[in-house]
């Protein structure tokens, strides 16, 4: 936690917050921060700044806060992701939030196990938990927006073309072209399921305007593919 | 497991292997492969090829194997890594092997907890286990070499300059230059501890010939930093 993300409910006054629960334990047990200590804070979807611990209660800390710093710029990337198993989903949501993605679409593919759509890891609270952790790791405040698309074909045919208008749309898939230089404009990146994307699905994605992107001879795990491609796409 | 890595002890004849234990269970329970099925195999540090299941015993499978394919080229990158906590170490060894790194040096830094050097995750078998999993994920056979350096200063002053000769040596550290285009030659990449690299350590690394590499305003986790930088460094 390199920044403490603050929500409207945390505020007891415009310049005061009370932090209990996970954040209380983190400040007390990991940071071991005493009264008077200043910590990086940020208002969700707002400015970042400093919080000074003014009081420790039995169940939380009181901080005096001020805000003067813009969060880092969003990564101009829309991530469209085949629904993975819950542990991988958690890591990917964390990772996407950490890397600055602000729009995440979780999509069905033929090789996504249907039962995964009933997983509790897709609940709004479970999703938000990982996004908050990712923002706190990165020092960012802008909460990504996540949407679930359970039907592949209607999404790709009816929604995707408008979504990727003005962007470079890439789908990680063997046999595509490699990427030799960073891209300086918005990207929509599609990462399929671990078992691969069917020919039929690739054809529909191509018809919608997506270009296959080859990642070399090695088969990478989804959780590494994503930062690997982000590293390639953007020069910073 | 996209490839079954074979070791000398697995061979019962030049073209026969017997696979028990973890690989037996994987073939039986995950791949659910019947007799006659052909699977991708590779000899450790040798060629890749195909194995056909010829018999299933109570405790293993017998495969007839042939080899005709070179493993993918090594990534021209030496990874020098501050010793992380065991779960992160496991993921990083896996990830380095998967991405094609063949030389990994685990180094002490001031902000590495000293007790971590006694962790069982640094034992040769524990290290090999993660490397094997990474190679099996990527479809590669060339086993990386891992060495442990428990003393920072003697390593940086006495060994590092020779080690990085002919390479671009980079250390992930705020305030360095960003990297705007892939590098076409060998790289030595140093990733410090989660808590950061001390000024004193950075000065020693610079004196040894390393250049700080800035990764932008976000603070990334080590496990994502590594594929992120590899994506940046190499065009493939």
Description:
Two copies of one chain form a homodimer. With 236 residues, chain A is an alpha/beta fold. The first copy, chain A, folds into two domains: 66 residues, Hypothetical PUA domain-like, domain 1 (Ribosomal Protein L25, Chain P); 157 residues, SPOUT methyltransferase, trefoil knot domain (Alpha/beta knot), CATH 3.40.1280.10. Helix content of chain A is 31%, strand content 29%. Chain A contains six helices and twelve strands. In chain A, the strands form two sheets. In chain A, strands 1-4-5-6-3-2 form a six-stranded mixed β-sheet. Chain A has a six-stranded parallel β-sheet with strand order 9-8-7-11-10-12, with helices on both faces. In chain A, α2 crosses α3, α2 runs parallel beside α6 and α4 runs parallel beside α5. The radius of gyration of chain A is 20 Å and the shape is elongated. The mean pLDDT of chain A is 94. Chains A and B meet through α2 and α6 of A and α2 and α6 of B.
Task: Spell out the blueprint of helices and strands.
The structure is a homodimer of 236-residue chains.
Chain A: E1 4-6, E2 11-13, E3 16-19, H1 21-30, E4 38-43, E5 48-56, E6 61-69, E7 77-82, H2 86-99, E8 103-107, H3 124-138, E9 145-149, H4 152-163, E10 168-177, E11 187-191, H5 199-207, E12 211-213, H6 222-233
Parallel strand pairs in A: 1-4, 7-8, 7-11, 8-9, 10-11, 10-12
Antiparallel strand pairs in A: 2-3, 3-6, 4-5, 5-6
């Amino acid at each position: 936690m390199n920044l403490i993300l603050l929500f409207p409910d945390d505020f007891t006054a415009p310049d005061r917050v009370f932090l209990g629960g996970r954040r209380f334990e983190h400040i007390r047990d990991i940071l071991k921060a005493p009264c008077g200590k200043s910590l990086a804070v940020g208002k969700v979807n707002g400015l970042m700044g400093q919080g000074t611990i003014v009081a420790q209660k039995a169940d939380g800390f009181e901080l005096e806060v001020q805000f003067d710093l813009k969060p880092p710029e969003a990564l101009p990337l829309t991530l469209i992701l085949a629904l993975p198993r819950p542990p991988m989903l958690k890591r990917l949501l964390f990772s996407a939030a950490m890397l600055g993605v602000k729009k995440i679409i979780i999509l069905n593919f033929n090789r996504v196990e249907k039962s995964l759509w009933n997983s509790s890891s897709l609940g709004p609270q479970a999703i938000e938990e990982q996004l908050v952790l990712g923002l706190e790791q990165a020092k960012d405040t802008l909460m990504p927006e996540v949407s679930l698309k359970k039907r592949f074909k209607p999404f790709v045919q009816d929604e995707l073309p408008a979504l990727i208008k003005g962007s470079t749309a890439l789908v990680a898939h063997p046999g595509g072209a490699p990427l030799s230089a960073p891209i300086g404009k918005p990207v929509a990146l599609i990462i399929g399921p671990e078992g691969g994307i069917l020919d039929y699905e690739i054809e529909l994605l191509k018809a919608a305007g997506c270009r296959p992107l080859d990642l070399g001879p090695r088969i990478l795990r989804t959780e590494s593919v994503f930062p690997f491609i982000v590293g390639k796409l953007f020069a910073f």
